[in-house]
Amino acid sequence: MEGKTGSNQPGMKIEIKNITKRFGAFTALDNVSLDFPSGDLVALLGPSGCGKTTLLRIIAGMETPDSGEVLFDGEDATRRNVRERHVGLVFQHYALFRHMSVFENVAFGLRVRPREDRPSKEEIRERVHGLLKLVQLDGLAARYPTQLSGGQRQRVALARALAVQPKLLLLDEPFGALDAKVRKELRRWLRLLHDEIHITSIFVTHDQEEALEVADRVAVLNTGKLEQVGTPDDVYQRPANAFVYNFLGSGVRLAGCIKGGRLRVGSLTLDGAEASHREDQETVVYVRPHDFQVERSYDGATGIGAFVARVLPVGPVVRLELFRYDTAEFIEVELTRERFDELGLQPADIVRLKPKSARVFTEDYSI
Amino acid sequence: MTARQQLPEAGTELRTATAKLETGQSGSECLVKVGGDWRLSEPVPSWTGVLGEKTATSMRVVPEGLGKWDTTLVLFLVHGQAWCAKSKKDFHVEALPKNLQALLRQVAGISEPKPMAKTDVKSTWGLAGDMAKMWASHAMEMVSFIGECTLGFMDAAKKPRQFRWMDCLFEMQQCWATSLPIVSVVSFLVGVILAFQAAIQLRQFGAAIFVADLVGLAVVREMGPMMAAVIVAGGTGAGFAAQLGNMKVGEEIDALETLGVSAVDFLALPRLLAVTLMMPVLAAYANVLGVLGGMFVSATMLDIPAAAYWIETQASVGVLDVTTGLIKSLFFGLAVGLAGCLRGMKCERSAAGVGAATSSAVVTGVMLIILADALFGTIFNVLRI
To answer: Which CATH code for domain B13-111?
Structure first.
């Protein structure tokens, strides 16, 4: 965007070292270390209360960690004031200045600068209009925040954050307050915007789909601890532990065991065992709901026997709630419409399940 | 004894085989045999005395004629398992039914729930202690806030052009406009009340004219500035807390800070200055209205002509009396502004937080006013002004 919207700004490299933060008896962050490479869009993903927003606020300088360091481009910024950090922050509930128009909101960060480094009025106007064009709100400069929709407000907030040409953009659940459709649209748009301006961005979310779709890298947090960091593909395809597996898409738990280096579930033998797994050990096997092959039960069919408890058509897929025969475990399976129509299943029907792929985690902390 | 409480009739299958627990030792292993039906509704054996004299290094639980069972058995086994874990002994349950083992595994990871912490109910002394702690922390916050504001004002003195003069003027206007009607009514009535109280006593001695002295001095030295300050604390002070609290909840204050703007400089200082400058003006106005109230009572009830009342007031109330009152009101204004801005900026991030901040601002404001007044009373007394 003509170099006026921060497009030529090199992104800042952020390092988090051994950050711990407690609120009274509650540990929000427990010795978290994390790198944010320059120019990347990183998602901090985790369930609510996992410490992701606290981490963001520590990076922004609105909270001070009990111990640990925050490095901006290799420089210690742990004790640096919010005002001196030059970060752009986008809030979940927009936090626009209510008594200012869209234009004034975006221009605010520039207008309040001391005279010495304040751009001229012309320059400010040009830059604000450039930004409003970038966020596709060029015609609405004179409106007030209350006259805008949620999605538009959030885009104004983003323009306001970008106006001061920050070297780091922080987004705190930016789409959390929007409805599903607008959220999806903005998600795509944010990705395109980031591809255009390449500013180091950190983005907090509890929505795994959002994180996987938008981010270059995903950091999964749980109860104040970092569980895994990697590309969206990495964390989804090669989850480090059961928590990550379950959080990035639902997983079905099956009781199984390891025999002869193979994974056994009921009468089935599956791949997925690793050398690190102990022989003859009872274990929990994880399968994605859509990774089941479902057959009607007939003599000689192999697989895990289960009966259908409920049939839930959800849009393009049909969800089956099943109970396993031998252990009475609850199993959720997703079928395509075609497959479901082929089988013509009803509640109380008996089926055989064959997992197409399965995972076992050596250390299973989760219940 | 009603019929209902009698034993069930023959044929209803309610009686079950009682739960059995047998222990033995084979080598270094303690063998625990569980049998019968383990039901929640029936008495079941416990671990007490199971090990006795035995010196086992491990424990193995095996079923022997195990009938129906429910969570009672699971719980029983969990306790055994926990005991074994604590005393570093192996615990074997492989011989038990698979589903029982599965349940046991699931329960094993869960620690016993802690007893619910007693909340809510606190003794009066406990509550008083909490309040004292809260006030102490509020006092600390106030001290640091005063420090921040002082630094801000010093910066502003160096660069007066950076100061938000327009905001300050706007707040002065707001303060004036919202307070004026109430200050008028209250001050006039305070004059009236004082005059009535004085008249009852003074008339007995035929000294009704001294009502003017009493009302004049009381209003100018104390009641005028104080009533104006209390009204401003309830209106403007609470308004500051609500505005800033709302901005805090809406994360607007955080947004300001990330844009490189100090919230104290930008929001608190103009408001502080506005209310500090406005307060003496309102106090002077309150003084005039108070004297008028006294004059009204005297003229209508005590048959003292307004002119005589005015001359008596002039004779008794000196310039020093007026100035001390106005100087005090300057500090009252500062106190109201500090309480309002501080409570607003420390507002909790919730809808209830704004309400709490507002009422806390009024309470803190009024308390600071009284404190300042007592302080000034002492100082003026020592100085004999």
So the answer is: 3.30.750.24
